[in-house]
Task: inverse folding
């Protein structure tokens, strides 16, 4: 198992004076003031103990309401676990369902943690190649092709990191018959659900009875600018939920009390103001994404137009370099950090990922430096 391809470049740029990082996918917005204030008040009130293993009941009740009203997904509070970020939820889901020899389908390009997490859980990650030719979506034909008698589950992660791709409800409905035919479990990572630019986010758990075979993962990091608070949640069918809960009890005990209370405040405020802060962030991210796509295409780097999340995934083939060489030379010569597409699977070899969760000033300067770099190569 190789070290994270994202962190490698992030660690370098941290010590490089004058560098611009388009590497790590972390919102540049600060957690809303009222949420931070609630955390401070919580500390002053002495809410510094453990919570129950599942997390605060009131938070789980609000999450249940949030999923129902925002995405038409229905899981009760008693089948919801508050986790240490969405990352713990991914690990819990895979450890709960994987036995040695089980194959887990991982659409690529994909988030760097999926395949290693499958391996750590004793399963075998099987890449499912998605391409720009079909907007990086998971089609029934592509899915069917990779299924074997050992296949246990498929990971569905839209809006997608690193491509910014989104699957519509109709596209999700198209893969459901294949999932049912082979009796697969779905692990649906919806951490970027609120950052969908084209219409409303569609969850596969909202289709028919799919909630009963879907492990739904989400959290507060991206949409609520709460990465450092490390609070996420996972909802699942009863049997999977019970297995995840036991693992969570023995390994984590509970998510931080203070972070849970901050997350509760974020949801309460969201319901009160129609999630206007989320909408403001989404609008700004979309503006930045349009800027980068237009800039890359203008410089001959063919770039898929993201429909969600906050990444672009341009092809760098025209430069004569693959993604690894492009990222290395760009950082060395012009102090701009991007992530090689190969970090997200072999299918991304000739791409780089650029996060636009940074200021327009940084994005403009980065494009100027990339333009100068392209003139050299």
Result:
């Amino acid at each position: 198992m190789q070290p994270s391809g994202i962190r490698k470049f992030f660690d370098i740029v941290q010590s490089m004076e004058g560098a611009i990082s388009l590497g790590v996918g972390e919102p540049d917005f600060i957690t809303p003031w009222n949420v931070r204030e609630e955390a401070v008040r919580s500390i002053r009130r002495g809410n510094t103990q453990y919570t129950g293993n599942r997390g605060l009941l009131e938070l789980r009740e609000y999450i249940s309401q949030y999923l129902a009203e925002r995405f038409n997904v229905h899981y009760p509070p008693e089948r919801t676990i508050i986790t240490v970020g969405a990352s713990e939820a991914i690990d819990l889901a895979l450890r709960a369902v994987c036995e040695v020899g089980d194959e887990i389908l991982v659409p690529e390009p994909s988030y760097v943690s999926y395949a290693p997490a499958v391996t750590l859980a004793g399963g075998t990650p099987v890449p499912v190649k998605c391409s720009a030719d079909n907007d990086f979506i998971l089609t029934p034909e592509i899915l069917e092709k990779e299924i074997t008698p050992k296949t246990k589950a498929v990971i569905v992660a839209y809006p997608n990191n690193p491509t910014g791709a989104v699957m519509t409800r109709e596209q999700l409905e198209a893969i459901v018959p294949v999932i049912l035919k082979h009796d697969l479990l779905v692990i649906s990572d919806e951490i970027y659900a609120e950052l969908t630019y084209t219409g409303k986010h569609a969850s596969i758990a909202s289709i028919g009875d799919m909630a009963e075979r879907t492990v739904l993962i989400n959290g507060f990091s991206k949409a609520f600018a709460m990465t450092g608070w490390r609070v996420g949640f996972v909802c699942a069918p009863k049997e999977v939920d019970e297995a995840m809960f036991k693992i969570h009890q023995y390994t984590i005990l509970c998510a931080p009390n203070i972070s849970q209370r901050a997350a509760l405040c974020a949801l309460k405020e969201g319901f009160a103001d129609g999630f206007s802060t989320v909408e403001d962030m989404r609008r700004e991210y979309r503006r930045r994404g349009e800027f980068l796509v237009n800039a890359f295409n203008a410089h001959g780097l063919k770039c898929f137009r993201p429909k969600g999340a906050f990444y672009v995934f341009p092809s760098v083939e025209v430069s004569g370099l693959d993604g690894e060489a492009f990222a290395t030379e760009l950082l060395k010569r012009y102090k701009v950090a991007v992530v090689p597409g190969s970090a997200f699977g072999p299918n991304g070899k000739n791409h780089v990922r650029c996060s636009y969760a940074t200021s327009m000033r940084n994005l403009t300067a980065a494009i100027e430096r990339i333009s100068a770099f392209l003139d050299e190569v």
